[in-house]
């Protein structure tokens, strides 16, 4: 479903210990109803990686796709889905680099 999905431009990537990264992004377009983000606004995002504890579930496509967040660069275009939000970050459970 397109609810909570959006496209954005990557502004910056702060790489932490692999595979964690915090992405600063600017939302370009909402793809459906979204109470978490608004168009033309900047957000700091953490990409969620499926697994338990410190073990990644690499057999899951979502984990494989979301690992790409570590390799994003400023200027990349992405499509993403927000799972939740707090005062500091939005949390993305699906991310895909766009051409």
Describe the overall structure.
6% of the residues lie in helices and 49% in strands. By secondary structure, the protein is mainly β. A hairpin with a 4-residue loop joins β6 and β7. The longest helix has 6 residues, at 61-66. It is globular.
Labels describing this entry:
99 residues; 1 helix; 7 strands; mainly beta; single chain; two-stranded antiparallel ribbon
The portion of residues forming beta strands comes to: over 45%
DSSP helix fraction = under 10%
Measured between the Cα atoms of the first and last residue, the distance is 21 Å
Order of helices and strands: EEEEEHEE
What best-fitting shape do the alpha-carbon axes yield?
globular
State the helix count. Answer: 1
Count of β-strands = 7
Largest sheet: 5 strands, mixed, barrel
Structure summary:
With 99 residues, the chain is mainly beta.
Topology record:
Blueprint: E1 5-15, E2 21-30, E3 42-47, E4 51-52, E5 55-56, H1 61-66, E6 77-85, E7 90-98
Parallel strand pairs: 3-7
Antiparallel strand pairs: 1-2, 1-6, 2-3, 4-5, 6-7
């Amino acid at each position: 479903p397109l609810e909570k999905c959006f496209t954005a431009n990557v502004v910056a990537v702060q790489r932490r210990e692999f595979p964690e990264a915090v992405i600063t992004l600017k939302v370009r377009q909402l793809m459906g109803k979204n109470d978490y983000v608004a168009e033309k606004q900047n957000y700091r995002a953490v990409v969620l990686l499926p697994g338990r504890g410190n073990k990644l579930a690499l057999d899951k496509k979502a984990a494989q796709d979301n690992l790409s967040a570590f390799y994003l660069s400023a200027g990349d275009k992405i499509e993403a889905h927000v799972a939740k939000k707090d005062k500091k970050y939005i949390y993305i459970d699906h991310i895909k680099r766009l051409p």
